[in-house]
Each structure stands twice: as structure tokens, then as C-alpha cells.
Amino acid sequence: MYSRFEYLFCRASRAYVEIQKVSNKIERTQSMAAKVPKSELLFETINPYSFANKALVMGLPKVTVSDSRFSYSLDFQSKKMQVMENGKVKETVVFYVLPMPQTWYGRNPDGSYTPLAPFNQLKIWNALIELKPSVNLFMMETPEVIQKNANASKVIGVLQATVHTKIGELAIGNPKFEFNLTKKVQINPQDKVEHPIYTSSEVQNILAWDISVPYDENSTKIVELTVNKNSDEWNSISKVFYLTMPSKLKIVGVQKIVNPILRQNWEHELRMVKRKNNNADMQYVKLLWNGTGTTPPSAIYSNDKGWMVNYSTDGNLWGKGAYFSEDVSYVCGKKNNTLTYKYAHKTKQNTIKLFLAQVIVGDAIHLEETANLPQPPNKEGSDQKYDSVLGFRHNTFIYCVKDNGRAYPTYVVEFTQS
Q1: What is the pLDDT of residues 147-170, one digit of tens each?
Q2: Which part of the chain is CATH 3.90.228.10?
Q3: Mean pLDDT on 113-136
Q4: 171 CB burial (10 A radius; 0-12, 13-18, 19+)
Q5: How are beta strands 185-187 and 178-180 bridged, if at all?
Q6: CA 118, CA 245: separation in Å to the nearest integer?
Q7: Average pLDDT over residues 41-62
Q8: In sequence order, which ranges of 278-325 are alpha helices (DSSP H)?
Q9: If you count DSSP H runs as helices and E runs as strands, how many of each does the chain have, helices first?
Q10: Which among 246, 141, 247, 137 is positioned nearest to 181, based on CA atoms?
Q11: Which entry of 223, 330, 362, 365 is 20 to 30 Å from 186 by CA?
Q12: How does strand 364-366 pair with strand 388-393?
């Protein structure tokens, strides 16, 4: 039901009249991929919405998201949300969802990217429907700013929108930034520096590209290929890295790992998972981040099993397994906008090394934290097991694979800490 759209969640009473007006306009246009159901025109909004959207689109039954002050526990089946502060429930509200096209991601002051702020995308959508060439936005990009302007437990909202550039240039900005959507750049009016901006579909494209790992089938020699800084491959890796990492961090090197035996084992596992699921629409492989802590990355890619599940501990989120994150900042132990590098490998040269791995996630099941889980559970009504376990932690998705050879250590990314 939810796979074709992203979603708006709304619980902000102040937004209702404005949103209802735009919703009625949306119904009268052909700008959306499908007509908005009238039963879903009334809705409420929470923040940070992008994490809740991911969970909903992936079909998770419930999820907890948080900002710097509040946590929001959403149950998608009952459509009820608990707003919590310091572990205590402040209120329980009903939320609604509205299918919307994609949203725009803007560049934060630290260089990372997040969806644009509450109500700004609503104004963009309204301007596009009315074919206005521009709109002025007052940027409220963080929960801290929102709290200064309103009661954060009452007024937190984000609307997702898409932009049809056929109407020409749409410049969006305030005294700080201008968004030129024809050139797809974000401009600081003070120094006129331009940075790219992305739609959500472009973000998904950044997170996936065709990767080739050439190897000699008759060789067992492990090769560490240096990725050229001027190559498209380097550029693709950099985009994935800087989506959620500060621009002040500098990537100093990327190695592509060629381990013929490990790669053949991984390709065999992928064929078996594809044969078992037989679903052409399934995303079998994801590019995910992994930190090895005090263990050198070479210990992972120099054997024919990769991540050795049996060497992991039972005390992890779902017990023994190899764990990977969509968000590189999570692997770097981001806490209160500070990187602790909790899971990362620190070198003697004071640099950080992480894996960007190709992980066979196959048909993943969402589970709450369950220590000592030996294997993913069986699918309902089947003797086949799920391929991996999926969870949501600190506003990012974590994947756990329970079988050796399901993850290939494709790249070792090395960067400076400042």
C-alpha cells in the first residue's frame, strides 16, 4: 500500500488550515503520481519525519524516532503516537498519513544533508501548483530553532513535495540561503558559493550504483586496489559519505578489496538468496557501513569468510551476527552532533578507517532488540527463514546478517578526524 509514495505525518493543529488548502489544490492537479484519497486529507505531522517515512515505506509495524528533546513512538497499525520526554509519555495522539511525491534535501551548515525544514516544503508545493516563480522561506531547520518559535510538542511539521522544473527557475531562500531548482544548487547569498541539492529519489540513486569487482577465478591472491581520486567511483563513494558526515572531514584514501575466494562465496550466496525469494522487485544488496573497532580492516578482508559471525557476541542487538548501518555517522558514534568514533577503527596515523560493504539483506524482517537470537525467524506460513534482521536505532536502520559470506568488504574508506 505504501511502496509508491513517501509520506507526511501531521499532528500540528496550526498547520491544518494551510495544509487542507494545498491538499484541495493537489486533488485538482495532475502533479501527483496518483490522486489523493479524500479519507486521507486530514493528517498530522511529526519531526524528524524522514525516519518515520523510511519505516512506513519499508512496511515496519512501528518505529520510534527522536530529535534532541523528544521521542516519538509510532504504531502504524493503530495510527497512534506517543510523545515522550526523558522516557516519560507526555501525550498520546492519533496521526494520519497522506501519500506525497518526493522531497528536497538541503545542505546543513556542517555540510551534511537533510530534508528541508517544516512548512517550507509546503510553501514550495503551493508555489509550484500556482506556477509562482519563487517563494520566500524562513528556515527552521532544527528542533532547537522550532522550540524557540513554538511549543515543540504541538508545532512540529514537515511536508514533502516534488518540483516540476518545466515551470522554469524557482529560487527559494531567506537571508541565509537560496535554492535554485533549475540548476539544483543551494546558494549562500553572502559569498555566492553553490552546493548541490537533491530530491529523495536522487538520494536513493546516490546510495546505489553498479559496482564491479574484477577477479581471476583461478587466483587466491588478495589485492588492494587504490581508487583514483578523479574517478567516478571515488565521486560516488564521496557522495555517500558526505550525505550524513560533516564536510570538514577529508577522505584521504579508498581501497577496493579484491579477494577472489571471498567474492566468489559472496556471489554464490547472492544467487542462492535470489533463487529462494524469486522476486525481481526486491533489493537484494545494500551498500552499508561497518566499523571494526580495534580490529584492523585487513583482518576482515584477508580471509575467505569476511565477517566471522561466530566470533561476535551474544550481547548485541540481535545476538551474534555482522552489523551494518545505512548511516556512516552512526558507525562513527555520532552523539549530540559529536563524532565519538565508537565503532570505527583508528589508525596510528590518527585517521579513521571504515568499510563500505555490499551486504546481502534479501528479505529482511524488522524485530525489536532480541539478544541471543540464533537465526532470523521463519516467514509466516513457511519453513523458509528471513535473510536478515532489520532494526531502527538512533534514527538509522541497522541490518544484521547471521551467515558468513553474506557481506563483502568492497571498500575501505580512510578519512581524517578534522
Answers
A1: 333 332 222 233 233 323 333 333
A2: 223-416
A3: 64
A4: middle
A5: antiparallel
A6: 22
A7: 54
A8: 298-301
A9: 9, 26
A10: 137
A11: 330
A12: parallel
> Can you give the pTM of this predicted structure?
0.74
Specify whether the CB–CB gap between 266 and 410 falls below 8 A. Answer: no
φ, ψ of residue 33 in degrees (nearest 5): -70, -25
Amino acid at 260: P
Here the cell at position 229 is 581520486
CATH 3.90.228.10 fits domain 223-416 = yes
Contacts of residues 73-79 at CB distance under 8 Å and 24 or more positions apart, as own/partner, are: 74/9, 74/46
Cβ-based burial of 133 (10 A; exposed 0-12, middle 13-18, buried ≥19): exposed
Q: What is the mean pLDDT of residues 257-280?
A: 95
- 3-class DSSP string for 6-54: EEEEECCHHHHHHHHHHHHHHHCCCCCCCCCCHHHCCCCECCCHHHHHH
C-alpha cell at 243: 550525505
Q: Which residue has the cell 545542505?
A: 107
Give the whole-angstrom CA distance, residue 291 versus residue 353: 8
One-letter amino acid of 69? R
Cβ neighbors of 120 (< 8 A, separation 6 or more) are 137, 138, 139, 140, 172
Exposed, middle or buried by CB within 10 Å (0-12, 13-18, 19+), for 167?
middle
Q: Say what angle helices 120-129 and 16-27 make with each other, to 10 degrees.
A: 30
- Does pLDDT of 341 surpass 60? yes
Using alpha carbons, select from 31, 42, 58 the residue that is nearest to residue 98.
Answer: 42
Phi (first) and psi of residue 112, to 5 degrees: -80, 170
Strand bridging mode 322-325 / 80-85: unpaired
Q: Checking phi first, is residue 181 left (phi over 0); if not, alpha (psi -120 to 50) or beta?
A: alpha
Which grid cell is 416?
Answer: 581524517
Please give the grid coordinates belonging to residue 121.
516544503
